[in-house]
Amino acid sequence: MKRRHRLLLFAFGAVGIAFVYCAGALNMPAWGQYRGPYGDAIARLAVYQRHATDTVNAVTYDYRGFDTLGEEFILFSAVTGVMLLLRPEKQRAGEKKNQEGGNPASFRDRAALSETVQVFTTAIFGFSLMFGIYMATHGQLTPGGGFQGGVLLAAAPMLLYIAENTEAFQRIVSHPLVEFFEGAGAAGYALIGIAALTMGAAFLTNVIPLGMTGDVFSSGTIAAISACVGVEVAAGFTLIVYGYLREILSRAAREGQ
Amino acid sequence: MTLPADYPYFIAAWILLCGLYGIVRSRHLVHMVISLTVVQSSTYVLLLAIGFRQGGYAPVFAGLHTGVKVVDPIVQALMLTDVVVETTVVALLLAMVVKAHEKSGTTSPDDLRFLRG
Predict the structure, then answer these.
(1) Is A149 within a domain?
(2) Do A77 and A71 touch, CB atoms closer than 8 A?
């Protein structure tokens, strides 16, 4: 199909989408006039039922916990897919064995990095870790939670890369424990759900004591699942970075021959 | 100029169509993947617009009395998970682009005319 024909077909479809969408949007409640009732019911009940002050995370990890488990496994399988696609290819006969031997530092323009950047990024490494852990463990109280905290945790080793501490960076991202944590996070979520089954309740029922509202160790499974998700997201993102890094290195090694 | 009262709904539609246009007109697979994320971000705008309430507070009751008017927490929870999941899916798609380029030597979607096992 020629590009012009394709564009014509798209214009036809776009007008159709716009028409149907506008017809639907014009019959929706006016913007800013949310009517409920489900959001209001959750906002009214979550604090009393689950002892969680952040109702968004009460929905994510409890009321809608089963769906989030599904999304969790989308994430898991996407990371698995990346690692599978970017796996190092087998050494062909006669090729030198330097697949993993490249140095990421060689792909950076050393002269371009200022000392300020180097010092500053190293200095905020610890803060970044701490903030990630804080986010992942306080999701039941204030905005945050496992997904956000996990991403922050995964960003910490990348700060080391920016700071050109490539040795430490490589040691962290290529560590076999990262893979373990990725699986453990996903399994932890599922096991918390199964734990409820062993107590005679439905899957993912909040069976852990709820604690005091406003306390870090409150809201039962919400805090526990949030922490599991944090571990999985952090490990998953780190694995993706590792996969791409390995790909770049092996490619450069191939081209360098 | 005054905006129509429901303008966030139409902004969502506009972002959706921009993303689709990008996919249709794409000459590069990476461009196509990024266009897909544009399409996806339109759903965020739509979801948050549906749950928005004029004068509503954030649905976080740390230091806020229950019974205060808040925006809908459910739609926020829906998009919260998706933001992170989308990123990993984009990583997967980009890995496919890397492999497609490796096998076929092209990054133009128009030139990918083969399927091999």
Answers:
(1) yes
(2) no
Q: Is residue B13 part of a domain?
A: yes
Nearest chain A Cα distance for residue B64, angstroms:
9
Q: What tens digit of pLDDT does each residue of A183-211 get? A: 999 999 999 989 888 888 888 888 887 77
Chain-chain contact of A39 with B59 (C-beta, under 8 angstroms)? yes
Taking an 8 Å cut-off on Cβ atoms, the answer to whether B13 and A25 are in contact is yes
Whether residues A14 and B20 touch (CB distance < 8 A) is answered with yes
DSSP string, A229-251: HHHHHHHHHHHHHHHHHHHHHHH
DSSP-derived secondary structure for A5-48: HHHHHHHHHHHHHHHHHHHHHHTSPPTBB---SHHHHHHHHHHH
Q: Is residue A185 part of a domain?
A: yes
Integer angstrom CA distances of residue A143 from A5, A39, A229, B83, B107: 48, 17, 15, 15, 40
B5 at the A interface (CB within 8 A)?
yes
Q: How confident is the model at residue A145 (pLDDT cuts 50, 70, 90)?
A: confident
Q: Name the residue range of residue B12's domain.
A: 7-103
Residues A158 and A174: their CA atoms lie apart, in Å, by 13
**Chain B environment of A255 (Cβ under 8 Å):** none
Q: How many residues does chain A have?
A: 257
In this structure, is residue A139 part of a structural domain?
yes
Flag whether residue B88 sits within 8 Å of chain A, measured between CB atoms.
Answer: yes
What predicted TM-score, i.e. pTM, was given to this entire model? 0.85
In a domain, A122, yes or no: yes
Contacts of A74 in chain B (CB under 8 A): 85, 88-89
Q: How many CB atoms lie within 10 A of CB A255?
A: 7
Q: Where in the sequence is the domain holding A202, given as residue range(s)? A: 54-88+100-256
Asked if A31 lies within 8 A of B7 by C-beta distance, the reply is yes
Answer whether B88 sits within 8 Å of A75, measured CB to CB: yes
Amino acid of residue A102: G
CA angle B9, B12, B15 (to 5 degrees): 155
The more confidently predicted of residues A112 and A162 is A162
Domain CATH for B93: 1.10.287
> What domain count does chain A have?
1
Q: Count of domains in chain B? A: 1
Interface size, chain A vs chain B, as Cβ–Cβ contacts under 8 Å: 164
- pLDDT for A113 equals 72
